[in-house]
Amino acid sequence: MESGTSRTSGTGGTGNAGSTETSGSGDIARTLELLWDTGRRPSRGPKPTLTLDRIVEAAVQVADTEGLEGLSMRRVAAELGTGTMSLYRYVPGKGELLDLMLDRVQRPSENPADLGDGGWRAALEAMARETLALYRRHPWLLQVNQSRPILGPSALDGMEKVLTLIRPMGLTDPELVSAIIMIDGYVVGAARSQLYQQEAERRTGLTDAEFWQAQVPALEKAMASGRYPVTASLSEDAFGSDFDHFGFGLQRILDGLEVLVAQRRGESAP
């Protein structure tokens, strides 16, 4: 099952400035009908050869392998081995389909252990790591401006699970939502950096190690010049790939929230 709980904040991070798509750009009323299965169903006629679920799954597969630039109603129809017009019996267009895709990949895990040990800190940490994994599985998410999401069942299910676990923090409701937004923004930044690094390697043909190795002669001269004494004094592993920068930053955010929680409870800060 997919898990992308922090996407349910409704005000979470968006794609980069070059976003190619925007959530909520289709017929909102029709999208909500499809998400919540509240539309009228035909009582007569031949049995449909397709299902909305199959169409959404095929669209996600296309986006995963070809990016949003490769996603179109025609391409999804080809993936399903049917005519393009057949898809329009189920979904009005690409805008509505994209919102269905967004809700599909946010489907939360059914395993309670995936949100930690029941404590608020473990829940937020698990949410952050699961969201980062979500972006790795579906990098096209970073191409979508989700500043105004259409909230479907998967999004709200994920939101409900996280809010249930973090409500004991004792913060106000706006603060609880803000905590989710803050972590979501941090994850989006980290995911975007990782995606850009992979894209740079693909475009240049240079691995990350080869890229930095090419700069070594110039950097050694710069460090020997005496102009950058603090930078030159750093240990050899300061910029190493073994350090978990994502985990370090995430723990500092959680430490800050823990101080706030303690203050609200009248306790000494940990």
From TrEMBL:
Alphabetical UniProt keywords: DNA-binding, Transcription, Transcription regulation
Domain HTH tetR-type span(s) in chain numbering: 49-109
The protein's name: TetR/AcrR family transcriptional regulator
Organism: Streptomyces coeruleofuscus
Region (Disordered): 1-28
InterPro entries linked: Homeodomain-like_sf, HTH-type_TetR-like_transc_reg, HTH_TetR, Repressor_TetR_C, Tet_transcr_reg_TetR-rel_C_sf
Biased composition (Low complexity): 17-26
DNA-binding region: 72-91
Keyword Phosphoprotein: no
